[in-house]
Backbone:
């Protein structure tokens, strides 16, 4: 059973460009979470999604950031007009339906560098 | 905010047991204790979780006190590859409003040769 797959693993963007990070949850998992880890800081929750629904986006910056988890395909975290402060590791995690015990498993992360 | 308290750092000799403590004095009756670790430049790795009984798997053992206000993660034979930041997190399993993991600063465990 493949784990949570994230790509790209490393992404370099110039200021003002867009960054798209993709996450394929584990097989059978319908819940996706995105976390951000700034350099030398802890993991911060960004957003929690179920298929086609954003459940909790309380950790998302108000502007430039968006997330989706369509019916088909991976979850996407999109950052528009990137700035140097967006440079961080972005981790995706997934869990199965909450009715069956929902341990959360993480991917290996996508490292965004804004130059 | 995280609802757990952990030491900032610990050291352990290779081959010895590593015992990582965690205080969670405000834990609710339906909250589980979860342990994750993060090796440098990798994603957080799930280790183990439990409610009130002690738990053991291939990675570690989890000892929860009877009053559930604290717990200890035990790595029975630590190796250099166990050097990581270990996070103790309380969370409701199976839904509810506390579905997400809230990470604190964790404990940096350094396993020395």
Residues:
């Amino acid at each position: 059973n493949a784990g949570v797959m994230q790509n790209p693993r490393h992404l370099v963007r110039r200021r003002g460009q867009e960054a798209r990070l993709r996450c394929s949850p584990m097989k059978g998992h319908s819940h996706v979470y995105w976390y951000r880890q700034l350099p030398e800081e802890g993991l911060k929750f960004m957003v929690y999604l179920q298929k086609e629904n954003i459940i909790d986006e309380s950790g998302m910056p108000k502007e430039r950031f968006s997330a989706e988890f369509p019916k088909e395909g991976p979850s996407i975290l999109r950052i528009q007009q990137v700035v140097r402060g967006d440079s961080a590791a972005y981790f995706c995690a997934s869990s199965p339906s909450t009715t069956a015990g929902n341990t959360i498993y993480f991917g290996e992360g996508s490292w965004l560098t804004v130059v | 905010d995280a609802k757990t308290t952990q030491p900032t750092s610990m050291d352990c000799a290779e081959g010895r047991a590593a015992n990582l403590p965690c205080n969670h004095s405000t834990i609710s009756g339906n909250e589980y204790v979860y342990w994750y670790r993060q090796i440098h430049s990798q994603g957080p790795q799930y280790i183990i979780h439990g409610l009130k009984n002690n738990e053991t798997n291939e990675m570690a053992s989890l000892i929860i006190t009877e009053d559930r206000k604290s717990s200890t993660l035990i790595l029975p034979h630590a190796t250099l590859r166990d050097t990581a930041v270990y996070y103790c997190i309380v969370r409701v399993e199976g839904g509810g409003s506390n579905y997400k993991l809230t990470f604190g600063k964790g404990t940096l465990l350094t396993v020395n040769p």
